[in-house]
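Structure ticket #2291
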Amino acid sequence: MKIAIVSGELLKKAIADRPFRAGNDIEWAWVDQVSALEQHRDAGLYIDLDFTMDKDRIGQLSQFLPAPVMVNSVVHTLREIDRPFIRINAWPGCLERSIHELAATDKKAAAAIAVLYGELGWLYRFVPDIPGMISGRVLATIINEAYYTLQEEISSRSEIDTAMKLGTNYPFGPFEWSERIGLQNIYHLLCVLNEKDSRYAPARELIKVLRKD
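Resolution: structure written out below.
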């Protein structure tokens, strides 16, 4: 089976380093632009880890349907994308987890992914097609609360990171997570969630840091 993937170096490493079930003849086709997927019309799965909510990009990916097409879309839902794609949470640090977080609203796409993940020997969990999925919402909330704590001058960035790692056994502290994921990505998700729930209102300190950058 050939898997064609659009990816930068960071996320490429996260996938390439992941072991898959022995005995399977897997061919990985790595490209750095979505247009280059055209060279791999025989792929059994297409993955766009650099996905952006762009009409032209969605159109380019749509031409590979009904083959399963997976996109790294943590914030934007399939309802917004309006295609029978599969969403994956591919924020940095999430692809390395033992279980991939996916969302699919099309039954045929979900069934195809079940077969492909079975062949690879990878684990996955389907979650609701909502902004942030599950872990994205959790991480954004934790990071936002860390910025509220910093804003109130309760502790320093390094102390908050250390406390969270020691107290919860998280691999990274909230500020370390924000650097890996990208604070702009966190802010974008918080803004979307805040439209329906004020508990997700971005901290002033978070916005301040973004403006400095």
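Closing remark: The chain is about 45% helix and 15% strand.
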